[in-house]
Structure formats: C-alpha cells, structure tokens
Specification:
This protein has two domains: 351 residues, Mur-like, catalytic domain (UDP-N-acetylmuramoyl-L-alanine:D-glutamate ligase, 3-Layer(aba) Sandwich), CATH 3.40.1190; 125 residues, Protein-Tyrosine Phosphatase, Chain A, CATH 3.90.190.20. Helix content is 37%, strand content 16%. Helix 5 packs across helix 7 and helix 9 runs parallel beside helix 10. The longest helix has 23 residues.
C-alpha cells in the first residue's frame, strides 16, 4: 500500500463531510466506534484528553491549547477537522520547539508523515473490513446474511464505518504510539454522537454555539446545545482528577442547558465573561493585545498573532481550560512534569505568539489585501466583516463566496450582500458545494460576478481590484483551502 492507495482506502468509506443530507441520529452510533476501537486494542483509553465542542472557534481553541502546552514542554497530540490542503493536517503531534513556525506557507507543522499514515491504515484495515457489508445507517440484515458474516468473523451489525470514524481511530492509534502527554480533540459534528466522544476528558471546552446544521442537530439553540454538551460525562474510575467545563459567553438558552448538564454530571462550570474576563487593548492586521483576569490569575498585555476579537475570546477560553486542567491536577495531588503544580506564564505568552492557524482571517497578500476566512454561518460572517472593517483600511470590499448546500445560504448571503461592493460567486470541488447560479438569487449587489471554480474567482477578483481594495475569500473552509492551493498561480506574495 502506498500513500495514494491508503487515501483511496479511507475514502472508500462513507464521508458525511461530502453529503449534504442524511439522517443524523441513524448515521452516527458510538456503539460502532467502541466496537471498532476494541478491535484495535482500545487506543483511546489512557490518553489525557482535552475535548472541545461548539459551533465555531473549535479548531482555533484547540490549536491555541496545543501551542501553549507545547511551549510548556509537553508532547501534544492535536486532532482537528476538516483539512485545508492535505488530509494529514487532521492528525498532528507537536513536540517542544520554542519559536518554531511552519517552514512552508500553508503547511501544518507536526502533521503525521506519509509513511506513518500508510502504516496506520494497514493496521486498521483488517479490523475495518469486518464492518463491511453492514448496510448504510445501521439497517438490520436478514438471518442468513448475519450468519454468513459471523462465520467470516464480522462484528455484529452496527452499520458501515465512516471516513471520520476511520480517521479518528488513526488519531488515537498515532497518539498512543507517540506517547503524547495530552491529546486535544476537536469534535466533528455535534458532540453527543461524535466519534471523538468515546473518551473521557480532563477538561471540556465549549466554544460559541449558534444555529447550525439545524436539519441534524435541531432547529433551536437549546437542542443544538444539548448535542454539543453531550461530550460532558459523569466521572468513572478511569479518571483520577475532577473534570472541569469552561465555556465562552453564550445565549441564555445555551447557558441554561450547560448549567443543567454540569449540575447533573456534578462537573464544575466556568464562563468567559463572568468567571474569567478579558479586555482587548489593541488590534491590527498582525495580531492583538489583551488583558486576562481569571480565578486566581491575571495577565497583562498578552499578544496573540490571530486577528479578530472572537480570537481573543477563543484564546481566553484556551488559557482558562489549561489553567483549570493544571489546578485540577494539583488539587488531586498529581504533579504534571515541567509544571510544579502550575502553568508557567512564559509558556502562555510564547504559545499565543507562535500560534499558526491558517484560513481564519489569514492575510495572504497585500496591495490588494487578500484575506481568507472559512466563516459559514451568519454569526461568523458578521464577526469576520466587523473585524475587517475595524482592522483594515481599504476602498472596496470584494467578496469571493462559495458555500455548501446544507448551510444557511440566505442568512450568510444577506450579510455579504450588505457589506460588499463586489461579489464573485464560486464553488469548491466538494460535492456539497452549491452551484453559483443558484446563489445569485440571494444577492442584490449591483456588481455581481459568477465563476466556475475558486481559481477563476481569485483571478477575477485580482483583475478587478486596485491596490487599495480588499478581497475576502469566505463561505467555506473548502473554498479557503482551494484558495491557498491556488495563490501561487494568482499572484500570492
């Protein structure tokens, strides 16, 4: 098996990231993930897990946590999704290297090597094949088919494995092999039924929750919050410390759910904006400076090299989670190596300064500015546009926009239509992408253009733009990923 055939193998399983419509409740089953992992020797057990769920900001928060812990001297496993350029971005192991930055533009440092990925797929394949022929979405076979599978050594019918479940198992195996000190997991969709939810975490993080995937998670903030809060668990003997939940400031309906769940699970809950507060001192295209006051700690003039006020909130959440983790371990009498019972301030500062998280208000060109952000719901787009208006000086906003069919297209389009001087509609190569011709009806912008792919859309934008304009590429991380891939061909500096 080579790298290409290993990718072909993993892509032979159903990939819900490419399917706009499906039954959420019947498609995801934790029983299947448990059975799969048991066949692999339960690599998820024994990991020191930090688990993050939410509607947006999950990846940024996970990446900030990883950067801080790395600077504190730990080997950190980081599992995020989706990827921008290469599937291997999803699985990374970060070793302590002070000040290291990615050597190649757009490359994610520490991502699993190709030969290592091939080895993992070869280990997984014999177990994964036992789940073949179960039928999609857990449909029950007849008696004869069940007996045939039993003779072949197949597991009981639990439905077909998915691309995300295979990848999650790869992450667990890799983190176990690399003997990571901490494994940081970003949930995929929801939380309660997510493949990452087979673990018990030392600390849970809840990023901003908003209306998203309403056809799958429910059409209210309360129902979506319950799905996200599904990662919070009652303690078992596996954990030797008390878990903690930290959340950003949420709408009342969301906070009510989180409070109820934490009370039920007997887990402490801390809230950014209430128990932990921050204030932004300055913000520009290079990063931001902010103060942070928490439970027994206070930091002045923290510098984070991500832009947008929402990233200060994510950074505050990340710091509060790690501080809670160390405090919990200290109370339990567990001394983490390198810590002496507390997280060093210099690790926090250097971790924030050295964070690299592309595709989130990422500036890839100047004169004209080209800014990338994978915002894909109305609230995210509002925050992106607000950040751009506050940070950058420009004449016209030229928006390159492509989005998946299952998103709130009307709501996102309304925000872009209101703010943009020019809109260039496009699509990624992902199967869920909405055709530009059908996006057109949501815009009243007088200067509206259509393109067949992201590369063409970027070319149109750059040809139209003057040096004092700003081109925003947004609507989907798939669009952003293709923009990064094509920047060299269209004038990337």
């Amino acid at each position: 098996m080579n790298y290409s055939t290993s990718l072909d193998y993993i892509n032979s399983f159903i990939n819900f990231e490419k399917i706009p419509r499906y039954s959420y409740a019947s498609s995801f089953r934790l029983e299947r993930m448990y059975a799969f992992l048991q066949g692999l020797g339960n690599p998820h057990l024994g990991l020191n897990v930090i688990h993050v769920a939410g509607s947006k900001g999950k990846g940024s928060t996970c990446s900030i946590i990883a950067s801080i812990l790395r600077q504190a001297g730990y080997r950190v496993g980081l599992y995020t999704s989706p990827h921008l350029l290469d599937e291997r971005e999803r699985i990374r192991v970060l070793n302590k290297v002070i000040g290291e930055r990615c050597k190649v533009e757009g490359e994610f440092g520490g991502m699993i090597e190709r030969d290592e990925f091939i080895e993992l797929i070869e280990k997984i394949k014999p177990v994964a094949e036992k789940f073949r022929g179960h039928g999609k979405f857990g449909t029950h076979p007849n008696f004869r088919a069940r007996k045939i599978r039993e003779k072949l050594g197949c597991v009981p019918n639990l439905g077909e494995l998915s691309f995300f479940e295979i990848f999650t198992a790869c992450a667990f195996l890799y983190f176990k092999e690399k003997n990571v000190d901490f494994a940081i997991l970003e949930t995929g969709l929801g939380g309660r039924l997510d493949a990452t939810n087979v673990t018990e975490a030392l600390v849970y993080g809840i990023t901003n929750i908003s209306l998203e995937h309403t056809d799958k998670l429910g059409n209210s903030l309360e129902s979506i919050a319950r799905e996200k809060a599904g990662i919070i668990k009652v303690h078992s003997s596996q954990l030797t410390v008390d878990s903690v939940v930290v959340t950003v400031s949420q709408e009342k309906e969301v906070m009510d759910v989180l409070t109820d769940v934490c009370n039920e699970k007997k887990v402490d809950l801390y809230e950014i904006g209430k128990d932990i507060t921050y204030s932004v001192i300055s913000s520009d295209e290079k990063g931001q400076v902010f103060d942070l006051d928490g439970l027994g700690y206070s930091y002045k003039d923290l510098e984070v090299n991500l832009i947008g006020r929402h990233q200060v909130e994510n950074a505050s959440l990340a710091i509060a989670m790690v501080k809670a983790l160390f405090s919990s371990c200290c109370r339990a009498g567990l001394n983490l190596p390198y810590s002496r019972g507390e997280l060093r301030e210099d690790a926090i500062r250097s971790g924030l300064k050295n964070i690299f998280w592309p595709g989130r208000l990422q500036v890839i060109q100047k004169q004209p500015y080209v800014v990338l952000d994978g915002a894909q719901n109305p609230d995210s787009i509002k925050k992106v546009i607000s950040s751009i208006e506050k940070i950058f000086n420009y004449n016209r906003l030229i928006s390159v926009f492509g989005i998946s069919r299952d998103k709130d297209i009307e709501g996102v389009s309304k925000e872009l239509d209101r703010s943009s001087d020019v809109v260039i509609l496009t699509k990624s190569s992902n199967e869920r992408a909405k055709e530009p011709i059908y996006l057109k009806e949501n815009f009243s912008c007088k200067n509206l253009r259509l393109s067949s792919n992201v590369k063409e859309a970027l070319n149109i934008g750059l040809e139209m733009a003057t040096k004092k304009d700003l081109i925003l590429v947004t609507g989907s991380l798939y669009v952003v990923g293709e923009a990064i891939r094509n920047t060299k061909q269209v004038g990337h500096i």
